[in-house]
User: Fold these one by one.
Assistant:
Number 1:
Amino acid sequence: MGDGRRAVNLLMLLAAIVAGIVFGVWTFESVTG
Amino acid sequence: MVRAYVGSFLSLAGLACGLTWLYLGMRSVMEIGGACAEGGPYVIAQPCPDGVPFFMVGGIFGGLICVGLFVWASSGLGGSYGTLAAFAWPALFLSLGWNFAEFAVDPPGEEQGLVWGWLICAVVFFAMGGLPLLGLARPSNLKKMLWPADPDPFAAVAAPVVPIGRAFGESLTLASPGVSQDGDVVAQLERLAALRDRGALDPDEYEQAKKAVLDG
C-alpha cells in the first residue's frame, strides 16, 4: 500500500465522519425543528 | 476495492449519523426535564418531542449495525482500519457525558443550581468514555490504525531463527514459523523463486531473501 492510497483511505474516513454528522444534524433538525 | 470504499464510507457515515442522532435526541429530551414517554395504555405526563423516539432507537440500532458493517467493509481496504470502530465507544460516552455535564450546570426550565444526579452521570460517562480513549489514542496505536505499514515481504518466507536466551550453557532457540526445519529450506527457496518469477520480488530482493534463507 503506497502513501497515496493511505492518504485516500484517511480522507475517505474523515469525509465519511463529517458526512454522517452533517446528515444526522440535517435529518434531526428537519424532523424535530 | 470499490465495494470496500463505498461500504466503508456508508457504514462509517451511518455510525457517525447514529451517534449524532443519539446526542441530539438526548439533548431534546433533557430540555423537557430528562424524561418523556410515548404510546402504551397510560396517561402520558410528558410526551416526547416529535420524532425523537425514532431517532434514539434508530441511532442505537443503526449505529450498532453500522459498526459491524464498517468492520466487515473496511477489511477490504488493507491495514486494520476496522479497529477504528472502537472509537465509537468513547465517542458515544463522551458526547452523552457532555450533555449530562452541560445540563447539570445549566438545568432547563426554572430549575436553579447544580443538578447532582446529572453531574454524577456526567462523571461516570466521562470515565467510561475517557479511560478507554487513553488506551486507544496512544500515538503508536493511532499510527497503526490510520497509516498502516506495509507487511514485511520477507517475514513469512525468510525469517531467521531467533535466539531467545541461554540457560545452563546451552543455547535456546525459537524457530520462527517460516523456517522450522532444514527440509523447509528447499520449499522456501522454491517459494522465493516463484515470487521472483511472478514479479513480486525483483532480483535484488530475491537474492537478499535467498541469502537470508540459506544463512538460516
Number 2:
Amino acid sequence: MTRWAAGIVLLVLAAPLHGQAMREFQASHRRGDTRSLTARVQFTAGTLHLRAGPPGDLYAMRLGFDAERFSPVARYNAVDGRLTLGTTALGSAGFRVVDHRQLEQQASVLLAPDIPLDLSIDLGAGLGDVDLGGLQLTSATIRSAASRTSISVSAPNRGHCTTFDLDAGASEISTDQLGNARCAEIRFQGGVGKATLDLSGQWHDALRVRAQMALGELHLVFPTDAGVEITLDRTLTTFRPVGFTRQGTTYTSANLATAKRVIHVDVSTAVGGIVTEWKK
Amino acid sequence: MRRPSLLLAAVLLVLPVGPLMAKGGYPATSGALAAPIAFLRQLFHVGPAPTVRDVEVVVSSDSRTLILHLSDGSDRTLTLSQGRLLIDGVTSGHYAPGGDLERAWQGLLSDAARLPTALAVGRFRDWRPDGLAGDDASAADAMESRLAKLEPNPAAVASPQAIPAAAPGGLTVDLNDLSDLEHLGPELYRVGQLSPADLRITVPGGQARLGHYSLGSGQTLDGHLLVVRGDADIFGTLRGNLATVDGDIVVHPGAAVTGSVLAVGGQVREAGGDIAGGVLSLNDAFPGPQATAPSIVRPWQRVATGTAGVLGVFLTLTIIGFGLVAFARPQLEVVGDTVAHSFGRALLVGLLGQVLLVPTFGMMVVGLALTVVGILLVPFAVVVYVLLAVVAILGGLLGAAHAMGETWTRRRLASGNAAFGMNSYSYLVIGLAFLLALWACDIVFGWVPVAGSIIAALAILVSWLVATAGFGAALLSRAGLKDAFSGRIIPPEALTDEYLWATPQFGVPAIQRPASTRTPPPRP
C-alpha cells in the first residue's frame, strides 16, 4: 500500500505542469477616410473566422490568444492603408505547435465591406472559416500551411478582382461559390492533401483557373451553364472526367462553344486524383 | 447637567491625541482606551471618523461576520447569527435565517473578501438590499446606517496624481504606436506590477497619471496619456494616444481622441465620443519575453529545474521499462543481449536505420499513393510506421539500459560484491541510472566553462550511442522476436555468457542458461 501511495505521489510530482494563459484582445478602427485597404491576417494556430463587417468600421477583431506564446497584432497604417491583424509568435525561436491547447486560440475578424480590399490570409495549424461574401475584393491570397480551411464567397464581390491565390501546404481546403469572387484568375497550389474548388457563383464572361497539386485529390466543381476546357498535365494521376470530350491533353465540355460563360482550367498534378463535378 | 460633564471628559480624552494627528503621525491607539475613544468621538462627532484599514470576513455554518479594522485601532463587527443581528457583539435586531437579508449579506461578504479594501468599503457604503420586509428590513436599516458611514483609509486609495518621470535608463513607456503590442504589452505589464511608491515612468511626448483621470469638456490635452490604476474619463479633447493599465477608458459624448486608445486590464467604452485611431483592449497585461525584467536564474533554480527534468525522464522511462519487463521480458532481454554481445553490429545497423528511417517512410507513402487502393492505406501506414519506429527506438534504448544494468550487476557479483538485485527490473533501473548520471553531471557542473560544455557533449554522445545501438539491436533481433539474436558468431546452441560473468575465478563449470527465461532466478 505504501509503495502504491509513494508511486502515486511520484507520478503526481512528475506530472508536467503546463500553463496556458489565454487572454482576450479586441481591436477595431473606424473607416474614416480610408480609400483602400491592404489587409494581412496572420493566424498561426487556432480557429479563424473572417467575414465582412458592418459599414463604417474599417475592421474589428476579437482574439483569444495564448499569451505565453503569442502576442496579438493589430497594426494599421493610415498613410498607406496597410492593416495587419492576428498573432505573432513571441521570442525569436519561431513557432511550433507543441500542444493541442494552442489550437484553442480563436480569432474573429470583420473587415470593411465598402472599401477596395487587397486581402492576404496566412493560416498555420488549425481551422479556417472564411467568408469573403460582401467584401470589395481587388485581390485575395490565402495560404494554409496545415489547416482545414473552408472558404466561401456567399455574395458576389462588389469590386473588380484580378487574382485569387490559394496556397495549401498540407491542408484540406474546400471552397464554395468561388466564382462569386469574380476574379479574372484563380490560382491554386496544393502540396499534400485534398482540395475542392467550387467555381460556381455569379461571374461573367471568362474565368481562368490554374491548379497545381503535388500529392492528393483535386475536386473541381463547375456550374452547369458554363463551358469548360481543361488542359491537363499529369504524372501519376487518375482523372475521371464527367461530360468531357478528350483531345490529347485537353478536355472540353459539350457546351464550350455555345456557353455564355467559359472556364479555362490548367491542371498540373503529380500524384493523386482529379474529380470533376457539375453543379446547378 | 450630565451632558457638559461628558463633553468635558471627551475633550480631555481627545485633546492629547490631537497634536499627533496634526503631525500626520497618528499612532494606532491600542489597548483598552481605543474603543472608548472611538466611541466618544463618534458620540460627540469630535475629530474625523476613523477610516477602514482592513476588512475581514468570517463565515461559519451558522454565522456571517464582517470585521472592520479601523484606523484608530478599534474594530467594528456586524454579524448575522441564528436569527440575530449583532453589531459589535450587541444584539441590534433580528432576521429570518436563510431569508433574503442573509442571502444579500452573504453575497456582500463574498464580494468583499475578493476586493481590495478601498473597493470593498465602497461596496459596503452602496449596499442596499431590496425586497426586505419585517425584521429583515429593520435589521438591514441598522446595518446600512453603520456601513454608510464608512470611509476607506486614504492611504489605500490611489489618489489622482501625476507620476514622476523615471531617471535616465528607468522605465519608459512609449505610446507613439499603441499597435506595437509585442513591445508595449510587456512594458505595461511591468507598470502594473509596480507599487504606487515605485512608479516612475517616462512617457515620451506625454505624461503618466496615477488613479482616476478626467479630462474636462472644455479642456484640451496635447500629448500621449498613460493612466495607471484608474479610469480615464475623456470629456474634452486629447491630442495623442491614450492607454490605461487596470482601468477603463470612457470617451464621452463630445469628446475626441485624435490618436488610438488601449485599455490593458480594462475596457474601452465609446460613449458617443470620437476616437480617430484604433480602439484596442486587452483583458489583462500579458507577460512576454521582455516582461520579466532581466530574468536572473539562480544556480540552485537551474539545478532544481534540471534535476526535476532528469527525474521526470528517469521516472517515465522506468515506468515504460517496467511495463516492457512485465509484458515482454524475453524480447527485451534478447534486445539487451544483442547490444551486449554485438555492440558494434548493433551500432552500425542503428546508424543505418537512422539514415534510412525518413527515406523509407517517404518511399512507403509514395509507393502506396501510386496505387488507387493503396492511397487509402496511407494514413494507417503512416501511423503504424511511426509507432513501430518509436517502439524500436524506445525499446532499443531500454534494452540497452537493461544490458548495462545486467552487465554491471554480474561484474559486481563476479568480484564478490553484493548486488542491488538480480532481476530485470533492477537491471533496468541501474542501466537508466547510469544513462542519466551523465545528465546529472551536466546539471551540476554544466555552469563550469569548457568542462561544462564537454560534459554536455559527452552526455549527448553517450545517450545517442546507447540509443543507436539499442535501435540497431532492436532491428537485428526483429524487436526481440528472433530468439537467436543477430550478431552471434557462435551458433545459438552454444550460446551462454555465464562463463564471462558468473564463473568464479577458481572455476566452477558454467551451466547452460535455461531456455524459458534469460534472467537468472533471484538469489535465495
